[in-house]
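Summary of Year 1 activities. Much of the first year was spent building the evaluation harness for sequence design. The harness presents a backbone, in tokenized form, and records the residue chosen at every position. We chose the following record to illustrate the format because it has been used consistently in internal testing since the harness was completed.
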């Protein structure tokens, strides 16, 4: 009888433990269902409930700035760089037309948005002068900028961005590298690392031939300035080599013909010539915005013609050299 009693006690104990375990599992299962149900209801309410217009926080609408492009490559680069800097200053988005010429040759990021509403217009007052008022646009509106906007001060805070924006597209860069190599090979240069290359851009054309421009004050650098600038570079770099680009390459060949000089002879597009020169280390700038941007993209040391514009001319009265030429460039 004692063995039977012990056996029954053991069975009863196991039965109690089994029932207890079942109750624990059942309780946990019910709690989990409650949690899942509550979570599902919350998610459903978040996504299906109608918004409460009274309490909703409105999303701020993007505001845009664009520019009326005008002129040739140098002018277009100034206009885009200044547009970019002015837009970023106001925490606005720079945009361009779908047909923007720069998009064909440079990796610019500005998008196209049409049509713009709630639009205001900022018109440059004089040209050739930095206008600080353009940094005080009312950001309740979209804006169109009109003017050449030729000052480094409009985009100095965004210089790194502008260098990325003005990377040449692959087709332009490939052609530029090919021609740069052809130029130096024609001079029997086999190791570019043993030379210091100086880009020389000579603007003549309309600055010499257009009498209206000449009377207004536009001028081209003379032979003496270019020789002096080259002499300064030769004094700094014994291995100096000069590559000329010009809208009057015949004039350059007639005045500069030493062995450490080469010329871009092909009738390239403006952007290909600029891309070729961008492989140089330093720059001699004569006049014009094309040479300005060549120098800016190259970096290094830049020498510029200090006698632009013609002294006493109408252009001279409005031109501000300190806001046009970066302070680290060398006047000569």
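For this record, the design step produced the sequence shown next.
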């Amino acid at each position: 009888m004692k063995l039977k009693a012990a056996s029954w006690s053991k069975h009863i104990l196991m039965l109690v433990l089994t029932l207890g375990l079942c109750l624990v599992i059942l309780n946990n299962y019910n709690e989990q269902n409650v949690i899942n149900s509550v979570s599902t209801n919350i998610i459903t309410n978040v996504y299906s409930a109608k918004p409460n217009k009274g309490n909703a926080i409105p999303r701020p609408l993007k505001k845009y700035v664009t520019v009326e492009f005008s002129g040739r490559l140098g002018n277009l680069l100034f206009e885009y760089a200044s547009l970019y800097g002015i837009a970023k200053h106001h925490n606005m988005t720079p945009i361009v037309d779908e047909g923007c010429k720069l998009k064909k040759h440079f990796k610019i990021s500005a998008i196209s948005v049409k049509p713009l509403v709630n639009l205001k217009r900022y018109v440059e007052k004089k040209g050739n002068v930095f206008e600080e008022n353009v940094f005080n646009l009312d950001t309740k509106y979209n804006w169109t900028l009109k003017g050449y906007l030729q000052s480094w001060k409009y985009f100095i805070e965004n210089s790194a961005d502008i260098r990325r924006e003005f990377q040449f597209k692959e087709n332009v860069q490939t052609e530029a590298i090919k021609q740069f190599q052809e130029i130096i090979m024609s001079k029997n240069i086999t190791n570019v690392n043993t030379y210091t290359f100086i880009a020389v851009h000579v603007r003549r054309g309309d600055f010499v031939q257009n009498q209206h421009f000449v009377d207004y004050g536009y001028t081209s650098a003379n032979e003496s300035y270019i020789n002096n600038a080259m002499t300064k570079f030769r004094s700094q770099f014994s291995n100096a080599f000069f590559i000329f680009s010009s809208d009057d390459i015949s004039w350059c060949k007639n005045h500069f013909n030493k062995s450490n000089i080469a010329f871009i002879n092909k009738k390239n597009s403006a952007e290909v010539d600029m891309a070729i020169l961008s492989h140089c280390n330093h720059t001699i700038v004569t006049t014009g915005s094309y040479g300005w941007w060549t120098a800016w993209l190259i970096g290094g040391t830049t020498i510029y013609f200090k006698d632009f514009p013609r002294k006493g001319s109408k252009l001279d009265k409005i031109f501000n050299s300190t806001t046009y030429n970066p302070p680290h460039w060398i006047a000569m």
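The mean pLDDT is 87. Quantitative recovery figures across the full test set are reported in Table 2.
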